[in-house]
TrEMBL record:
<dbReference type="GO" id="GO:0004175">
    <property type="term" value="F:endopeptidase activity"/>
</dbReference>
<comment type="similarity">
    <text>Belongs to the peptidase S41A family.</text>
</comment>
<dbReference type="GO" id="GO:0006508">
    <property type="term" value="P:proteolysis"/>
</dbReference>
<keyword id="KW-0378">Hydrolase</keyword>
<dbReference type="InterPro" id="IPR041489">
    <property type="entry name" value="PDZ_6"/>
</dbReference>
<dbReference type="Pfam" id="PF17820">
    <property type="entry name" value="PDZ_6"/>
</dbReference>
<dbReference type="InterPro" id="IPR005151">
    <property type="entry name" value="Tail-specific_protease"/>
</dbReference>
<dbReference type="InterPro" id="IPR029045">
    <property type="entry name" value="ClpP/crotonase-like_dom_sf"/>
</dbReference>
<dbReference type="GO" id="GO:0004252">
    <property type="term" value="F:serine-type endopeptidase activity"/>
</dbReference>
<feature type="domain" description="PDZ">
    <location>
        <begin position="157"/>
        <end position="205"/>
    </location>
</feature>
<keyword id="KW-0645">Protease</keyword>
<dbReference type="InterPro" id="IPR001478">
    <property type="entry name" value="PDZ"/>
</dbReference>
<dbReference type="Pfam" id="PF03572">
    <property type="entry name" value="Peptidase_S41"/>
</dbReference>
<dbReference type="InterPro" id="IPR036034">
    <property type="entry name" value="PDZ_sf"/>
</dbReference>
<dbReference type="InterPro" id="IPR004447">
    <property type="entry name" value="Peptidase_S41A"/>
</dbReference>
<protein>
    <recommendedName>
        <fullName>C-terminal processing peptidase</fullName>
        <ecNumber>3.4.21.102</ecNumber>
    </recommendedName>
</protein>
<keyword id="KW-0720">Serine protease</keyword>
Length: 434
C-alpha cells in the first residue's frame, strides 16, 4: 500500500509518473529487509508492484490519476529518458548536496552520445547515471530483480491501495497498483478501481493503511473485496484467496526484574510488517495480565520494514498530539508532521534496546518514544538511516528505487548518518515511571 507519510506528495508523484507511463510502486518506505548483510544495501521493506491495465477506454482514471498506457512501446531510448526524468523531478540529494539540474543534464547528454544497441545497454546507461549520485539507496532494478520485491505485498492479494481525493475533494480509496500474477490481477481488479467494502464492511472513513491491514490474512483464506470500476462506474465483488503468509515478528516473555517482587515484560520486534501492531497489542495485554509492571522493547537487529506500521506502533505509547515524525522532500521547504491521536495503549515504564543494526522504521519508533520522554534507549548507537525512498516501475518491468525525502525526529534531530545515541550502554537496573 501507499504509505501515509505525505499524502499530497504521494498523489503528485502518482500523477506525474503515470502520465509518463511509469507506475509509482511504493512510496515512503524504510530500507529494512536487507538484500545482503550490509545495512547500507538494505532493500525496500514494503514494495507493491504496479501493473498497468486499461479496459475502460479513457485517457485518465477517476479521481484525477492519469493512467499509464500499456500500449506504449518501450524503446531503449525512452527507458533511459524516463529514468533521467525521475531523478530530475524527484531526487533529493540529502547527504552530499552536490546535485544540480545542470550537472544532471550533462549526465544525460553524456549517455546519449552513444546509441543503445539493446536493452542491456540501456540498463547499463541508467546504472551509469545513477552511480554519479553516490547514493547507496538509489539504484536500478532489472525485471528479475524487481519481481523479487513483490514478496513484500502487504495485503497478500496484490493490491496497492491509496487515498485519492475526487473532484469534490472527498477522499476515496483507490487501487494505485497491482502485483503481477497476484490474486487481485488474476481476478480482474484494475488500477483505478475504488474500494467500497472488505468482507461486507464499508471502508468509508478508513485509511488506506487500515483497509490494507483488513485485507491481509492467513495464506489460503478468502477475502471479499467490493470495488467500483473507474470510468465505467460498475460495482463488482471479488473473492480473493490470500497468497502471502506473513510470520509474526513479535516474540515475548515474562521476566523477573532486578527489583524484588517485580516482573517485566520482554518483547522483541524482528521487523515491522502488517502483523506487528496487532501482535504487539496481544503480547502487551498478555504480559500485563501476567503481572508485568514494566516493559523492555527489543529493536536490536531490526532493520526496519513497513514505515507506516512503525509509526502506528509508536502511537501505541504516545499521548494525543505528540509528534511521531517530521518529513520533508525536495520541493517542500517546511517540515510536515505526523502526530499521535487518542490515548496511549500503554503507560508503563519502558526501555527500548537498540544497536548498530537498528535502522529506519525501527529508528523512527525509537526516536519517537525517546524524544517524547516516553522511553529510554539502552544498547549502542543505531544505524542512522533518515532517508525516504520511492520505488518506480517502468513498462518493461524494470524499476528504480529513488531517494525522494528525509525525516527528522520529534526533537528535530537529523539522524541520517548519525544514528541515535542510547541513554544507557547497558540495561538500567530499575525502570522508573516516566
Amino acid at each position: 500500500m501507499a504509505l501515509d507519510l505525505d499524502e499530497q506528495a504521494r498523489i503528485s508523484l502518482s500523477r506525474a509518473c503515470k502520465s509518463a507511463g511509469i507506475a509509482v510502486v511504493a512510496l515512503f518506505f524504510s530500507a529494512g529487509v536487507s538484500l545482503s548483510e550490509n545495512p547500507a544495501l538494505a532493500a525496500p521493506a514494503v514494495v507493491e508492484s504496479s501493473s498497468v491495465r486499461e479496459d475502460c477506454a479513457s485517457s485518465s482514471l477517476a479521481g484525477g490519476i492519469p493512467d499509464a498506457s500499456s500500449s506504449l512501446e518501450v524503446t531503449d531510448e525512452s527507458l533511459v529518458e524516463s529514468a533521467w526524468e525521475l531523478v530530475n523531478d524527484f531526487y533529493l540529494d540529502a547527504r552530499h548536496h552536490k546535485w544540480s539540474p545542470d550537472l544532471w543534464l550533462a549526465q544525460k547528454e553524456k549517455v546519449f552520445q552513444r546509441p543503445f544497441q539493446n536493452r542491456k545497454a540501456a540498463y547499463s546507461a541508467i546504472r551509469e547515471m545513477l552511480a554519479t549520485l553516490d547514493d547507496p539507496f538509489t539504484r536500478f532494478l532489472t525485471p528479475d530483480e524487481f519481481s523479487q520485491t513483490s514478496k513484500y505485498d502487504i495485503t497478500g492479494v496484490g493490491l496497492n491501495i491509496g487515498e485519492v481525493p475526487d473532484e469534490n475533494g472527498q477522499i476515496q480509496l483507490r487501487v494505485l497498483g497491482i502485483v503481477l500474477q497476484s490474486p487481485a490481477e488474476l481476478a480482474g481488479i484494475q488500477q483505478g478501481d475504488e474500494i467500497l467494502s472488505v468482507d461486507g464492511n464499508s471502508v468509508a472513513g478508513k485509511s488506506a493503511f487500515a483497509v490494507s491491514s483488513e485485507i491481509q490474512g492467513r495464506k489460503g483464506t478468502p477475502v471479499s473485496v467490493e470495488v467500483r470500476r473507474s470510468q465505467c462506474g460498475d460495482v463488482q465483488s471479488y473473492v480473493l484467496y490470500r497468497q502471502q503468509d506473513l510470520r509474526s515478528p513479535v516474540f515475548y516473555r515474562l521476566e523477573r526484574s532486578d527489583v524484588a517482587n517485580e516482573r517485566r515484560g520482554y518483547v522483541r520486534l524482528k521487523e515491522f510488517n502488517a502483523l506487528t501492531k496487532r501482535d504487539l497489542v496481544t503480547a502487551l495485554m498478555r504480559l500485563q495480565a501476567s503481572g508485568a509492571s514494566s516493559f523492555v522493547l527489543d529493536l536490536r537487529d531490526n532493520l526496519g520494514g513497513l514505515v507506516q506500521e512503525g509509526i502506528e506502533v509508536a502511537k501505541l505509547f504516545l499521548d494525543d498530539g505528540e509528534t511521531v515524525i517530521y518529513t520533508t522532500r525536495r520541493n517542500n521547504a517546511s517540515l510536515q508532521s505526523i502526530v499521535a491521536k487518542g490515548q496511549p495503549f500503554l503507560r508503563a515504564p519502558l526501555v527500548v534496546l537498540v544497536n548498530n543494526r537498528t535502522a529506519s522504521a525501527s529508528e523512527i519508533m525509537a526516536a519517537a518514544l525517546h524524544d517524547n520522554c516516553r522511553a529510554v534507549l539502552a544498547g549502542s548507537r543505531t544505524f542512522g538511516k533518515g532517508l525516504i525512498q520511492s520505488v518506480f516501475e517502468f513498462n518493461d518491468g524494470s524499476g528504480v528505487i529513488l531517494t525522494v525525502g528525509k525525516y527528522m525526529t520529534p526533537a528535530h534531530r537529523d539522524i541520517d548518518g548519525n544514528g541515535l545515541e542510547p541513554d544507557f550502554w547497558r540495561m538500567p537496573a530499575r525502570l522508573y515511571g516516566i
